[in-house]
Design a protein that fits this description.
The protein is built from twelve helices and 40 strands. By secondary structure, the chain is α+β, with helices and mostly antiparallel strands.
Length: about 650
Amino acid sequence: MKRFITMFCAIVALNLNIKAQDITQNEEEGDKYLFRYDYHEAIESYVQAKYLTSSGLRNLANSYTKLNNYRKAEETFALLCNSKYELLPEDYYQYAMALKINGKLLESKSWFAKFQLLKPNDLRAISFANNAYKLDNLKKDSGRFQIIPMELNTNVEDFGTAYYLDKIVFASTRSNESMINRKDNRTNQPYLDLYVSKIENKQLSTPELFSNSINERYNVGPASFNKDGTIMAFTRNKHRDHGADHVVELQIYFSTYKGGNWSTPEPFIHNNPAYSVGQPFLTWDGKTMYFTSDMPGGYGSSDLYKTTKNEQNEWSKPQNLGNKINTEGDEMFPFYQELNEVFLFASTGHYGFGGLDVFMCRLSNDKVGVVSNVGYPLNSLEDDYALILNDSLTHGYFSSNRNEGNFDHIFGVNVIQKLDAGKKIIGVSKDYTGKYIPNAHIVLKNENGQVRDTLTSNKLGEYAFLVPSNQKFHLVGMKKNYGDGHREASTYVTETDVYADLVMLDKSTIDTSKLKVGNDLAKISFKGNLNKDIAYFDFDKFDIRPDAALELDKIVTIMNAYPKLVIQLSSYTDCSASKEYNQTLSVKRAKSSLAYIQQRVTNPSRITGNGYGETKLRNDCDCQIAAYKGCTDAQNQLNRRTEFIILKNN
């Protein structure tokens, strides 16, 4: 639990004057230290200054943020945002973040709202608008996860877990005596090395150094492995930097396991001295890698990217994962659970509970579903990140600085309530014979008729949409020379995949000579022997049967293909009940069929209808004689029908 200090005491403690004067020598020194990521020395220089410019005060606040000293960060941003300086929109955002991390949610929302007014199109502002009040309810759901403290945690940094066969590999600042003098000026901690632990009843055993051929001077880790544990990718510093900025950027290296040893690390082809790449995640086959980078051309400070190996075993140009995942903030620590197509990452840009929060989405063939916060208590007011999960998504590990000492530690997690990363609507565009229709234009609408997404089916007619759970959707398939196909799809299901094929009618198969006034549209001849009676109902029922729905889709398709058709729908029953009951039942059946069609055709007023009970039987089952009881079920079924009489076609 974070300890809070009043703003009044914090301002007195800072003892800084804010003046619109030239930069002091102390501030210049602080800027130099900050440029080298030496936040401790930067802070010391800034606080010794007689006064700070707006830039110096901003840099001081950001230095506190980098060291997770959010109390001091809040105090400093408060001075800046309440000063007479000309402020940047980012100042409002960072102050709001510090307030949120310190548990001052109402104040935080107020400053987020000010930021939103200044930059309404900023992806972080949009996320705040869409999620700020949803998370209030999400936080109440404390039964979502069971958090398991790890016994190996001590007063060192442990974070960034990765599955390695039946073990866990992670980055740590724990060190032996011979290594104790290795210090990172960013954290004042020993440099990171990779360690490995066995999984023992979900706890992690006493860790051992991973490999001397991988661990070396400067920071090493986090890492990732392919499924077989024969390929690894990991982050480390370069030995030295010859660039103009003299900053040692992070880079990715690869190693393979051969003959009982890890090979000499080889650099990632897209390493660049001008920026950092790190936090790699390898897919099972080792041929796709997700990673974090602040390379130019991204959306924010750090973005998530993807690269794949081609047939020549060369990594492709990094592909930014797009603005559904990346924001103007920081996105990092990617993890992809391939079996379930669940993508996990940490972000400060998507609106969450604290600093870094863990988010999830469905990721399938480069399509990104709805991004959502995984929820409380895995996410907290502090930094929570680097979540990894097993194949069943029931257990995993993550990293957090939620402990009192402000160290990053590893935690286990049991997933009590199944993670909901959304659903995937899968289908094929095809004709009534089952032949697929390639390159069809597919439109996905929500239940209010608003277009949510569009795409083109592939050469096999296949398509897929990533959508939220617990919603209803309407799909429309269109292609030249075909009548539109319509299909409903509901994600109120437990399955993660919802199958919804779109059947489209080839206009050349329609016997247009039969589209005459007085003819039953249900009896129009189609190539492929599709001229059967349609829309039958089960005994004493008025709901649309699945096989009848397919046939009703043909009526919809023809009406959409020929927009001048006007239809009279008539529904009938058998006579196995009283005349009055049958009349009522037929009206219900007519309304069911009518509603189904009207929801799917252009200009729904073109079709009207009613029920007529047992008035027009299709066979000799005379309701007036006792012999009626001798009618077979098949004969009665013929009378439970709906007809679609053409009233107009011009």
